[in-house]
Specification:
Helix content is 54%, strand content 16%. β1 and β2 form a beta hairpin. Bound molecules: zinc ion (ZN).
Length: 85
């Protein structure tokens, strides 16, 4: 009988070790934070819409990168600030 108990206990230990390796709760939180950073929103200075910072409509102006919701907004900004694309 004691052999049986040892088996069960070692199985439980193994189970928790594997569970922690597969689902590390701390790392999950870090990954979620990374995901939020990856899709950080930036305000379109022309129309005020929030745009993902991965937007292809962007302009660098005085060292700051501006993101736009559309090509039209980018053109409007460019005309207003008279910057080159
Ligand atoms: Zn816009």
């Amino acid at each position: 009988m004691p052999k049986y108990i040892i088996l069960i206990v070692s199985f439980l230990i193994m189970f928790f070790l594997v569970k922690n390796k597969l689902f590390p709760t701390e790392k999950k939180g870090e990954k979620a934070k990374e995901a939020i950073n990856a899709t950080e929103m930036s305000k379109d200075p022309v129309c005020g819409t929030y745009v993902e910072e991965g937007s292809k409509y962007r302009l660098k102006y005085y060292g700051k990168i501006y993101y736009f919701c559309s090509h039209d907004c980018m053109i409007k900004f460019k005309e207003a600030k008279s910057v080159e694309i």
